[in-house]
Design the sequence.
């Protein structure tokens, strides 16, 4: 654990002591397509598998939070993997970084969540993800088994509800977090936006973290290809009417990110780097926002830290950049001449 070189944050005297999260745990491969035109419904297209390893959301966020906050901060993921080779490998990798594995279970007879990420030559792409995996068996009753952890860290923890498990599991996590006064973070996919609104999930969230497409789906507005600022403003306005205390984080890839802290909207441009793979950048960013909350940063300051972590993450072919720690972030920030505020720079010293 010492080799992880966490950020300079005093956990023992801090407000938060743990993160409890639910979400998908799985693996995947990257497939580079030939040609930039959109894959047709009945088209056969050539391409090749890339070397990068893909990981799912709960694993990515948990990894960065644990490695950058260190052994004093508990990270408790809740999820399931299949009793297969991929599942066993993921269990080993998660255990190696010191995650609390008591609520990660094998699901006999089910496969571990797996996805194929297809990438066009211009860097855009999409995912094909199994929907009958072990992660799909994570339900409210399973999440409820972890209630003693919510009680143990009542008022001193962060709860993170991530996609790739059913909404009922995420809603249960946020319910428990509300009962035990944890800081609550919610995320969802574009196709889930309507259900999230109908179910009142956001009433039990302090921070909603989405990308620009998910935000647009949540607000029911079209998204322009070039300029997302107007979409962001509409999203914030509509959410503020119903959820005036809700904080909002919206990422838009190379166009940067926006954060609403309940009073002001801030935009941080994306740091200019040559990406190897942008997959997983949004999850790295979310981990940075969680870390910023633990560190006591303002939302705008946390946004800078999250942007830095995301920028370094895309220099790896894998969706978890295992070389990210305090030293590598400091060196990277110096290399790209990142204009960081003093509060963020002090975490890297």
Sequence:
């Amino acid at each position: 654990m010492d080799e992880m070189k966490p950020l300079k944050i005093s956990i023992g005297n801090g407000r938060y002591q743990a993160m409890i999260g639910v979400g998908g745990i799985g693996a995947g491969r990257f497939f580079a397509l030939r040609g930039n035109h959109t894959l047709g419904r009945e088209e056969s297209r050539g391409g090749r598998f890339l070397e990068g390893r893909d990981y799912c959301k709960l694993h990515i966020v948990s990894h960065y939070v644990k490695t950058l906050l260190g052994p004093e901060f508990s990270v408790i993921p809740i999820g399931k993997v299949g009793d297969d080779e991929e599942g066993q490998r993921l269990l080993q990798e998660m255990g190696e970084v010191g995650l609390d594995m008591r609520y990660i279970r094998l699901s006999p007879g089910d496969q571990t969540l797996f996805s194929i990420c297809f990438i066009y030559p211009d860097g855009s792409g999409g995912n094909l993800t199994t929907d009958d995996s072990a992660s799909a068996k994570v339900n409210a009753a399973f999440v409820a088994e972890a209630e003693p952890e919510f009680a143990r860290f009542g008022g001193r923890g962060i709860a993170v509800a991530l996609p790739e498990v059913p909404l009922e599991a995420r809603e249960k996590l946020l319910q428990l977090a509300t009962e035990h006064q944890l800081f609550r973070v919610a995320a969802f996919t574009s196709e889930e936006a309507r259900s999230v609104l109908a179910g009142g999930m956001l009433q039990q969230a302090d921070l909603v973290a989405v990308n620009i497409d998910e935000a647009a789906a949540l607000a029911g507005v079209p998204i322009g290809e070039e300029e997302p600022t107007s979409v962001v403003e509409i999203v914030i306005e509509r959410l503020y009417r119903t959820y005036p205390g809700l904080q909002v984080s919206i990422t838009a890839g190379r166009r940067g990110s926006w954060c609403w802290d309940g009073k002001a909207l801030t935009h941080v441009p994306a740091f200019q780097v040559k990406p190897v793979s942008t997959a997983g950048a949004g999850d790295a960013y979310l981990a940075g926002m969680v870390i910023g909350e633990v560190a006591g940063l303002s939302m705008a300051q946390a946004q800078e830290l999250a942007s830095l972590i995301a920028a370094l993450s895309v220099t790896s072919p894998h969706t978890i950049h295992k070389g990210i720690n305090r030293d590598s972030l400091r060196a990277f920030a110096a290399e790209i001449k990142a204009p960081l505020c003093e509060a963020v720079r002090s975490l890297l010293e």
Observations:
- The chain has twelve helices and 13 strands.
- Residues 2-37+47-201+273-348 form a domain with the UDP-N-acetylmuramoyl-L-alanine:D-glutamate ligase fold (CATH 3.40.1190.20).
- The two ends are 18 Å apart (CA to CA).
- The longest helix spans residues 281-295.
